[in-house]
Amino acid sequence: MPTIVVKIFEGRSNETKREYAKALTEASTRVLGCDAGAVDVIFEEVKRSDWATGGVLWSERD
C-alpha cells in the first residue's frame, strides 16, 4: 500500500527515475501516513509511437 504506476516516455535516466520515485515515496508517507517501505513505484516506459494525445501520436509531433 500504495502501488504507484508511472507511465512515461522511454529514455529517462535512472537518476531521474530514482529522484521521482523518492519524491513520490516521500509525498505518500506524508499524506497517507504509511511507512516508506510500503510504497511501490513502478515505471512503465512507453515509446512515443505508442502514445497519442488529441488523436496525434507523440512521435509525429514537432
From TrEMBL:
Catalytic activity annotation: (2Z,4E)-2-hydroxyhexa-2,4-dienedioate = (3E)-2-oxohex-3-enedioate
Domain 4-oxalocrotonate tautomerase-like: 2-58
Pfam families recorded: Tautomerase (PF01361)
Record has Cell membrane as a keyword: no
EC annotation from Swiss-Prot or TrEMBL: 5.3.2.6
Keyword line: Isomerase
Highest taxon in the source lineage: Bacteria
GO molecular function: isomerase activity
SUPFAM superfamilies: Tautomerase/MIF
Top EC group: isomerase
Family to which the UniProt record says this protein belongs: Belongs to the 4-oxalocrotonate tautomerase family.
Record text on subunit structure and interactions: Homohexamer.
Role, per record: Catalyzes the ketonization of 2-hydroxymuconate stereoselectively to yield 2-oxo-3-hexenedioate.
Protein name: 2-hydroxymuconate tautomerase
Source organism per UniProt: Pseudomonas spirodelae
